[in-house]
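ok so i was messing around last nite and threw this chain in just to see what happens. nothing serious, just curious
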Amino acid sequence: MEILTGKSNPKLAEDVADILKHNIDQPVSKFEDGERRVVISSPLRRKSVFIIQPTGRPKVNARIMELYAMLDAARRESPDEITAIIPYFGYARQDRREQPGAPIMAAVVARQIFDTGADRVVTIDLHSEQSMAAVDRPWDNLYASKVLVPALIRFGINPRKTAVATPDKGGFLRAIKYAEMLGTDKIAIAYKQRDIDLSVASKALFMLGDVSGMTVIITDDILASGSTLFDAAAMMKANGAKHVFGAITHGLFLDDKKTGRTALGRLDESPIEKLFITDTLRQKGRIRHHPKIEIVSVAPLLADVIYQIHTGEHMDGRFR
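result:
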């Protein structure tokens, strides 16, 4: 077995390798003109190769190109199997044609990953699982609830006084799973309307469910500008929630270009007491050290999955 990683999130890859007690190869460098260079030093012939590379901000396209280059370089060394582990899948939100003349970029990227050399893809909380249908190849989508729910319990969440909320109807199944894992049957939904343009802004409109006097955990897969989450949090508080927490898989923390507001600024102003996110994306210091943010590592989840793929063990326990 060999583990490779690019420049996207080397700390996460190193943590995975440490758990597996295995060395890691970081073969990516950069030419002066910005082009990526990949030279794999480890022998790969007849081995299982795992490439850990989130393809998220701030340099989405560069991270995707690094992944393509590592896949091609690895394939040329005749390994038994190559697994691309992509904790955050860039372009996943472009999973449908919003309007005539637009591509389905999630499908474009997925096809290229397999065409370049991947035998299998592993993702975490893919924005839309319909993206997996773009390719008829092995694709395992894992769920961050496996690490976020234990973190919430360790924090002291009391399931008997807790409701799980989703900021849109599309996250209802995720909310159900969180509720099941926490041991509560209370679920709330905040509906939103998203602008169909280049903005990442959304607006929460109304809510279903009773959260009066409850601790509310709002779950979602992605925090972009934070508008959806923070609008939902304000709505929960206005409807009588005693405490509000967030449990988000991928923290993008983007600025809202329409309003000029930052995600961290909105978090400071929001009623959310603690925001739990994972380390699928590398975060800046101001996010890592923010008093309202708790980062939970997916490294144990990924290490377990790598071990199971490598040994041939069944993976059902890692799915929702």
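not much to say yet. The domain at 2-143+300-318 is CATH 3.40.50.2020 (Rossmann fold).
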